[in-house]
Design goal:
single chain; 286 residues; alpha/beta; Rossmann fold; Pantoate--beta-alanine Ligase, Chain: A,domain 2; 2 domains; six-stranded parallel beta sheet; three-stranded antiparallel beta sheet; 9 strands; globular
């Protein structure tokens, strides 16, 4: 595995890599979820590029940015073991050159709700840095985890509008033994908070179980999730949301899953514990 830290070195290294190239953009603190992205890219592309950059523009809270885990040495070892060909480790000056005015990228209509409403400016920051990485690497395919479901849709919206378009490959969420979605933020949880956080996947499992038994009413599915989260008082629920998986348009309490025009429903949960925001999602057939 080759490691580069500058735009110029990246360009030189990319010229020596066989195509097609798969890009795995990350903010580091790599875990098995990231490894799954690399595995998918390794199986499908001639070369795999992984980037690690903690993007300040997608953090609304400076304390959250400062607390984000940074484990570059361990990350490099994990990336090499997973099969990465080229590791890109830029600093702020390489992503946002001081002499260049980097315009904020419009994240589009899919960014207005859910995390977009809860974290103003977040998706503009995501869209900006992802667009820069797409420009620098010019991958044929980029790999993103399904846990960050809204982010995937926003990135798909951006990628479809590029010339040539970049294909976005969704990779299934990798979970801990108790079902908690793997996330770099999990490392910030105390043991007690870690146990409490398992109520999030349990809530999604409750919805999935009802759905498997034939339930299609949004209010009853939503209530099942709320009861499960409510049983864990240390969790602060932000939202439980059922929406069309493609448009992200919400399904009202009186709606039926069949009201989702795409035929698929995204069930999203966001909750906080010990100041750590956790999100998770599943999709259901309408």
């Amino acid at each position: 595995m080759r490691t580069v830290t500058t735009r110029a070195a990246l360009t030189t290294a990319l010229a020596q890599l066989p195509r097609p190239v798969g890009l795995v953009p990350t903010m580091g603190a790599l875990h098995d979820g990231h490894a799954a992205l690399v595995t998918a890219a390794r199986a499908e592309q001639a070369s795999v590029v992984l980037s690690i950059y903690v993007n300040p523009r997608q953090f609304g809270n400076p304390a959250d940015l400062a607390a984000y885990p940074r484990t570059l040495e361990a990350d490099a070892q994990r990336a090499a073991a997973a099969g990465v060909d080229l590791l890109f480790l830029p600093d702020d000056s390489e992503i946002y050159p001081p002499a260049v005015e980097v315009a904020t990228m419009e994240p589009g209509p899919l960014a207005l709700r859910l995390e977009g409403a809860a974290r103003p400016g977040h998706f503009a920051g995501v869209a900006t840095v992802v667009s820069i990485l797409f420009d620098l690497v010019a991958p044929e395919v980029a790999y993103f985890g399904e846990k960050d479901a809204q982010q995937v849709r926003v990135v798909e919206w951006l990628a479809e509008r590029r010339t040539p378009p970049i294909r976005i490959r969704r990779v299934a969420t990798v979970r801990e033994g108790d079902g908690l979605a793997m996330s770099s933020r999990n490392a910030r949880l105390s043991p007690a908070a870690r146990r409490a956080a398992s109520a999030i996947p349990q809530a999604l499992a409750a919805v999935k179980s009802l759905h498997a038994n034939g339930e299609r009413r949004v209010d009853l599915l939503n209530d099942a999730a709320i009861r499960t989260i409510g049983a864990e008082p240390s969790l602060t629920l932000d939202y439980i949301d059922l929406a069309d998986d493609v448009t992200l348009l919400p399904l009202g309490a009186s709606a039926h899953l069949s009201d989702a025009a795409s035929g698929r429903v995204l069930v999203s949960i966001a909750a906080s514990i010990e100041g750590v925001r956790l999100i998770d999602a599943i999709t259901l057939r309408a």
